[in-house]
Amino acid sequence: MQGIFPAVITPFRPDERIDYQAWQKLLEFQIASGIDGVFALGGQGEFFALSEEEREVAARFCAQTVAGRVPVYVNVGCVTTQESVRLAQRAEADGVDAVVVVTPYYIRPSADELVDHYTEICQSVRIPVLAYTVPDRTGVELTPSILTRLASICENFAGLKDSSGKLDAIPEYLAAGLKVFIGRDHLILEALRRGAVGAVTACANVAPRAFVDLYRAFVAREMELAEKLQAMIIPLREAFALGTFPAVVKEAMEMAGLHAGRCRRPVGQLSVEARYKLLQALDGLRSRGYVGSETAARAH
Fold it and tell me: What's this model's pTM, rounded to 2 decimal places?
């Protein structure tokens, strides 16, 4: 439970059906790039746009395609506990290595309700369970005290994907015996320094080797190289503001020669101006060989 886990996209055809053929190629590309695991059906994977059946089939597909070469983690979080439990149990039966559970969204459960929610999910499976906190998008925050309570109740509650950006909480998570994957691409190196075991990264869809090299440099204590790689990644992360989440990563993948397809509506494509700026954001990665060569024409 460590290293670089791309938050893999879910590719769609023009008619918005899941493009499993394209997805298989993308997963093979990620594995060939040296990633340490796969995180599927998170925010970047547009889980919120998928039906329960689609999420079940997609999780099975990822587990079967990866076939044990690296661990597969799948987000099974839903608004209701009942649906989250169903998806967790199906994912376990289909060979997923761990389930990740984003907090309920739209509603705002109390601390006690969140503890009950996660406890029931943990007790419904035997595989490790990780929480997934992204309060900017869900409106619900998992505090260190909530996660510490969970760790004391559930033996298979293993850690969290932390997209809160609050690095100061990492020592409290570690004190509770939890593994922390940072979910903010621009904070990877600092999170590793503070004890995070790895990163779940959306930008690794575009340039996985850059993130693998960053993690390997940190492990080898080659800090100057790690700092250069972290700085090189930041422009792509900052480019997220160019369009509606999660369209930017898919556009960047297409620019890098990776077929990602569109997002499900209402999320649309980037404007011509935004694509041009995105191309510029990829310049550093491209100049160092981390993304394929590209012409400005591709942005139009």
Answer: 0.95
